[in-house]
Amino acid sequence: MDDAMPKWADIILVPVINIIIALFFAGLVVFAINEDPVEAIRTMITGALSSTYGWGYTLYYATNFIFTGLAVSVAFHARMFNIGGEGQAMLGGLGVALVCLALPWPHWSLALPAALFGGAMFGALWALIPAYLQAARGSHIVITTIMFNFIAFSVLNFLLVEVLKPAGQMDPATPRFPEGAALPRIGEILSGFGIPFSSAPPLNISFFVAIGACVLVWLLLWRTRLGYEIRAFGHSESAAVYAGISPFKIIMVSMLISGGLAGAMAINNVMGEAGRLVMNAVEGAGFIGIAVALIGRSHPFGVFLAAILFGFLYQGGAELGLWTNISRELVIVIQGLVILFAGALDGMVRMPLERAFLRARKRREAEAARLEAAE
Amino acid sequence: MIDVLIPVLDSTIRLAAPLLFACLAGLFSERAGIFDIGLEGKMLAAAFFAAAISAITGSVWIGLLAGIASAMVLSAIHGIASITFRGNQLISGVAINFLASGLTVLIAQAWFQQGARTPALSGPAKFNEITLPFADALRDVPFFGPIYADLISGHTILVYVAFACVPLSWWILFRTRFGLRLRAVGENPAAVDTAGISVIWLRFAAVGICGILCGLAGAYLSTGFQAGFVKEMSAGRGYIALAALIFAKWRPWYALYATLLFGFLQAMSLRPDVVELIVQVRVPVQFLDALPYILTVVILAGFVGKAIPPKAGGEPYVKER
After folding, report:
1. Is the per-residue pLDDT at B152 higher than 90?
2. How would DSSP label each residue in A234-295?
3. Does the pLDDT value for residue B3 go beyond 80?
4. Regarding predicted confidence, which is higher, B308 or B99?
5. Are B87 and A339 within 8 A, CB to CB?
6. A34, A157, A336: residue with CB nearest B102
7. For the CA atoms of B247, B252, B258, B262, what is the dihedral angle to 10 degrees?
8. Contact criterion met (CB < 8 Å) for B300 and A142
């Protein structure tokens, strides 16, 4: 049934239909609480896309989601469901914070690579134990990564309250990072070139790092031997083993890359936005990565587009909370609906579509055969 | 010592009850081969609707029914996705958790405008504590008196229901024909199908029971344990229940012990002073919070007794292969 649908239908039509169904149900929910869905959409578009301020926030959130979306995608390619992006991103924040606080950084161009390395290392480290337990002992990766999310929360809570918090400060957070570790904001850069772009939103240079990560993940998955092995393992474990691919190695490597990508997110939210590490810095971005990977069909370009869509939903949702009686949690409902329809109920959309395309093709073939016979 | 321990054990029982409901819910579902990481979402939805409908109608029993109904609706979605459309059960569970998390806040805000809360419940709109017969008369009996009067007596009806569900679940699963079939469908659905019994029906029945129990768990949180709904009030209990289920190796009596243990750990993290009194060193609260999850990972790693899940768990059943 693999060739039942043309490729464009699989990568564009199905996700678009999934999004439309999810938004339709979200509209019903809005309608059910006596609000106007059309007005809601208008508020979201105005708030997220009609100004450079709105775009700045949309792309800032999208940067987070690109990292976590890629993280989930890489694991998906090895047929593993990494639910632990949230915890891995939390620990990534710890890595970034430790690097930023370790030295009086003279310039961001030196601090960024080091912080990126620190965040990715800590994220990968947090994925290491679940990966090892899956690879060596067969413990289900979904359950262990869920447990590690909670453990991450406790670890971070402990470190922020008891260790990293400066004396005399009330809220559990690290001290501010040095000036030299502050990432330039896109608004400031563009203003330097005379392009007017609001510098209020926290959109920063990490956005380009995220795009770079998309390119690297694409190269890894489709242009290297390791990527081939990951995808082969994901398609059929037994075939991969027969071809001499070690399941242990693939599970470990793909989970470490996945954790590293989730951890790398911290350069955006911790280093680029807050300038210090606070509790709840991740704000659910690790989980949104699941929806982003599903809608993006686990392809880096798809992830990029889906992340921008969710960035829009996130920023638009915040505007809803400000200007209407609809709380911003509508976005979580949409997120749930997207995961439901694009993930769990994928067959509901796909099966009728496949049948329709098969029918259309049979009709075309019959037509061709008839014309041939007539000649 | 007993004066310190009884309040801690008392709150252990209160904290274990919702875990026990949810753990047994997961037990029925997973024994039938349907993984359910949506326990958390179902509890949360039930907690909200139980409190909201209790607040509106003034009757906690109508609220309880509404809570169970809301959890059943989410169960039905999970069933349709994972049984009918053979979708990924884990992804479906994740979706349900987000749906519940978002919808409860959205609806709470629209209905009550109190910052995603329901009004505080009182009187007949909540489950009140029951004093068992002779509790006050027996209080002065040494040792057993306080245990009976302060520990066993004085809980809401749902706590007793939770503990009664353990033998009931055991009896259903291990002493009835339905239970045998339900367990079989989680181990070898093809054999059940060959015997002429509907795999689909059995799995939907299990998911339905799971919904009822999650409904009880959630309703208990908002109408018994606390008086009203607050945002995210399930607070990860669905996941702790999942951990307890693994800890219990998918058995009802072990589920009781596992949830009591995890309830005890939760009670301890509320009373760090008692912990310090017992172990003589200061233990970080965060460590106690994380302990259920750490223990579960250790169990999952298979170093301390192996937890073997039902064989056909997580796999949709396809007829006529």
Report:
1. no
2. HH-HHHHHHTT--HHHHHHHHHHHHHHHHHHTHIIIIIIIISS-BTT-STTHHHHHHHHHHH
3. no
4. B99
5. no
6. A336
7. 110
8. no
Residue A276 to residue A22: CA distance in whole angstroms: 36
B316 within domain boundaries: no
pLDDT band at B108 (very low <50, low <70, confident <90, very high): very high
Quick check: is A344 in a domain?
no
Between chain A and chain B, the number of residue pairs with CB atoms below 8 A apart is: 152
Is B305's pLDDT higher than 70? Answer: no
| Mean pLDDT score across all residues of chain A | 92
Domain, as residue range, for A113: 36-324
Chain-chain contact of A340 with B103 (C-beta, under 8 angstroms)? no
| pLDDT tens-digit readout, B30-71 | 999 999 999 999 999 999 999 999 999 999 999 999 999 999
- In Å, the largest CA–CA distance within chain A is 92
What's the maximum distance between 2 C-alpha atoms anywhere in chain B? 68
CA B146-B150-B151 angle, 5° bins: 100
Mutate to test the interface with B, among A146, A351, A353 (most CBs of B within 10 A): A146
Which residues on adjacent β-strands are paired with residue B130?
Answer: B155
Q: Provide the CATH number for the domain around residue A131.
A: 1.10.3470
Q: What share of chain B in percent tops pLDDT 70?
A: 97
Burial A107-126 (b: 16+ CB within 10 A, else e): ebeebbebbbbbbbbbbbbb
Domain count, chain A: 1
**Residue range A54-63: mean pLDDT, rounded:** 95
Q: Tens of pLDDT along A226-279? A: 999 999 999 998 999 999 999 999 999 999 999 999 999 999 999 999 899 998
Q: Is residue A357 part of a domain?
A: no
Q: Looking at the complex, does the CB of residue A128 fall below 8 Å from at least one CB of chain B?
A: no
Residue A304 forms part of a structural domain: yes
In whole angstroms, what is the distance from residue A130 CA to residue A153 CA? Answer: 16
CATH number at residue B273: 1.10.3470
Query: Which of A115-119, B82-86, B247-251, B264-268 has maximum average pLDDT?
Result: A115-119
How far apart are the CA of B294 and the nearest CA of chain A, in angstroms?
7
Do B296 and A151 count as a contact with CB atoms less than 8 A apart? Answer: no
SS3 for B98-166 is HHHHHHHHHHHHHHHCCCCCCCCCCHHHCCCCECCCCHHHHCCCCCHHHHHHHHHCCECHHHHHHHHHH
The domain in which residue B253 lies consists of: 2-301
Q: Is A20 on the interface with B (CB under 8 A)?
A: no
Chain A (173-232) residues lying within 8 Å, Cβ to Cβ, of chain B: none
pLDDT-based confidence at residue B72 (cuts at 50, 70, 90) = very high
Token pair in block for residue B179: 């239970």
First to last CA, chain A: 32
Checking if the pLDDT of A221 tops 70, the result is: yes
Length of chain B: 321
Nearest C-alpha of chain B: how many angstroms from A335?
Answer: 7
Range in A31-35, A145-149, B140-144 with the lowest mean pLDDT: B140-144
B246, part of any domain: yes
Query: B89 vs A344: CB contact, 8 Å cut-off?
Result: yes
Give domain status of residue B272, yes or no. yes
Phi-psi category of B309—alpha, beta or left, where left has phi over 0 and alpha has psi -120 to 50? beta
Residue type at position B39: L
Domain count, chain B: 1
> How much is the pLDDT for A263?
97
